[in-house]
Specification:
Elements (H helix, E strand, L loop, with lengths): L3 H33 L12 H32 L14 H29 L8 E8 L2 E6 L34 E4 L6 E4 L4 E7 L4 E5 L4 E5 L5 E5 L5 E7 L11 E7 L1 H12 L1
Parallel strand pairs: 1-5, 4-10
Antiparallel strand pairs: 1-2, 2-3, 5-8, 6-7, 6-9, 9-10
Helix pairs in contact: 2-3
Bound molecules: dinuclear copper ion.
């Protein structure tokens, strides 16, 4: 039979081991983040992304504090009130404590919800009138894009005219506005080109199943739904190439469903468009 002294000695060692393990995990996380020498979000390249990042960081900060506080207290109480052979005590309620842990989270959650609702309505507001308008279509497993011709109008679509090679966008040849539409495969041979500091409205279609148009650098993510046109607008703020991903599990090759987007100055964009149309 172990004596009382050796039992409490074993418990103390177990607690110390627990604390050491916790410190080890914290050290591993901090070292990994420091070694990567950056936040895990990709560098921001759109105007709208700033408020999204701020809300994300605020939310993450608040839940981190709450997490450490709650689990720290839990560990502390487990340690402080461990079994020493005493009788357990019981009391029914503690009004001050209950009000505190109801009101503070309620205020924080209301604040976060209101800022999220405001941000959501700004992101989904009507695009400015000078916005560039392009269409993007997801399909198993790649992205296509459509630019209107010099007439500035997208031609009519009629699925009866669909042909995988000759008419992948199913443009109606009877519609004059469809004659000059530019259709590009932005997963293989082509790229989606946008203009820096100019708002762009992307109208999103899906050919077959649900996809999700995702540009991590712009903090843009919008579902592509068969049979309807969804849309999202944003303003790229940095030139350069960026990745389009599909963020909706859409089949066995979902993971290769990527596209390319290039942000250019207005002059570069105009030159590219003229060259691509000719
Ligand atoms: Cu398309 Cu995943």
């Amino acid at each position: 039979m172990p004596t009382n002294d050796t039992t409490s000695g074993t418990r103390r060692s177990a607690a110390l081991l627990g604390i050491a393990l916790a410190l080890l995990i914290v050290a591993a996380v901090v070292t990994t983040l420091a070694a990567r020498s950056r936040w895990w979000l990709p560098p921001l390249a759109s105007a709208q992304g700033r408020s999204i990042d701020q809300l994300f960081i605020a939310t993450f900060g608040i839940i981190s504090v709450a997490f450490v506080l709650v689990h720290g207290l839990l560990a502390l109480f487990v340690w402080l009130y461990r079994d020493r052979g005493q009788r357990a005590s019981y009391w029914h309620e503690n009004r001050a404590l209950e009000l505190t842990y109801t009101i503070i989270p309620a205020i924080v959650m209301t604040g976060l919800t209101l800022s999220a609702a405001g941000l959501w309505s700004r992101i989904h507001s009507a695009p400015p009138p000078q916005a560039l308008v392009v269409e993007v279509r997801g399909e198993q497993f790649g992205w296509k894009a459509r630019y209107p011709g010099p007439d500035g109008k997208f031609g009519r679509i009629d699925p009866r005219h669909y042909s995988a090679r000759e008419n992948p966008w199913a443009l109606d040849p009877a519609d004059p506005a469809a004659q000059d539409d530019l259709v590009l495969d932005i997963s293989t041979t082509g790229e989606l080109h946008l203009v820096v500091d100019r708002p762009v409205e992307v109208r999103i279609r899906a050919k077959d199943v649900l996809h999700s148009f995702f540009i991590p650098a712009f903090r843009v993510k919008q579902d592509a739904v068969p049979g309807m046109v969804t849309s999202i607008w944003f303003t790229p703020t940095q030139t350069g190439p960026y990745e389009i991903a599909c963020a909706e599990l859409c089949g066995p090759l979902h993971y290769i469903m990527r596209g390319k987007v290039v942000v250019q100055t207005q002059e570069e964009y105009d030159a590219w468009l003229a060259q691509t149309r000719s």
